Amino acid sequence: MGNVKNNLLRVQARINDACIAACRNPESVKLLAVTKTKPPSMVREAIDAGQSDFGENYLQDALVKISEVPDATWHYIGNIQSNKTRGIATHFDWVHTVTSEKIARRLNSQRPESALPLNIMLQVNVNHEPGRQGVDKADLPALVESTLQLDHLRLRGLMAIPEKVDDEERQLANFVELAELLAAIQGRFFLPGFDQLSMGMSADLEAAISAGATWIRIGTAIFGERH
Ligand SMILES: *Cc1c(COP(=O)(O)O)cnc(C)c1O
């Protein structure tokens, strides 16, 4: 077994250490292995090392891997164009990047009848940066309200990709903001299973875990640089 297994062990150890530092159960934080641009053989290598959940950003590229490795759990984490919703609704288990009612409705109507509801996270623009993906904080309650009417979707939580900052206090502030938004929605709507926070990557996973992250998304540190 090559580097993928060793890298997974290293990342998992970092997650465990961060959980201990934050007084959290390490089982409450899951690792999403991001395989964009990487071959199916690497997905298989990670599965053989015990990894179950994989993230993809590009639909066409992902479909090849999903057909070769259907036993994995697949998460869509890229920007969603309307013409991609059918493929996403058909082949994925989770979507972390829903940012509009229009996209939510399309995923709902295109989810196959035979499949379980699609697990959905709403991506929030926590920095209020113009041009950045994500629903504005102010528009989030309306998006929750419209999405929770959709029977083929199951709202599971919130996701963010905050701006890159080195300062751990500022990283923490962005993650705490997302965690507080989750808590506010939990208080306002009846949403069983709405308890997931997809936040934190390799540069800021410690801050994300101390703020309550349940999904850490890591690519390069497991599979190497992308070319
Ligand atoms: C690519 C990507 C990641 C993983 O990034 P790395 O720098 O390779 O660890 C995580 N989250 C999202 C949304 C991504 O697009």
Structural write-up:
There is one protein chain. The protein has 227 residues and is α/β, with parallel strands linked by helices. It has one domain: Alpha-Beta Barrel (TIM Barrel), CATH 3.20.20.10. 42% of the residues lie in helices and 17% in strands. The protein has 9 helices and 8 strands. The protein has helices at residues 3-21, 40-48, 59-68, 85-91, 101-110, 140-147, 168-188, 205-211, 220-223; strands spanning 30-34, 53-56, 73-76, 94-98, 118-123, 153-159, 196-198, 215-218. The chain has an 8-stranded parallel beta sheet. Helix 6 links the parallel strand 5 and strand 6 (153-159). The longest helix is centred in the last third of the chain and has 21 residues, at 168-188. The two termini are 23 Å apart. 41% of the residues are buried. The structure holds pyridoxal-5'-phosphate (PLP).
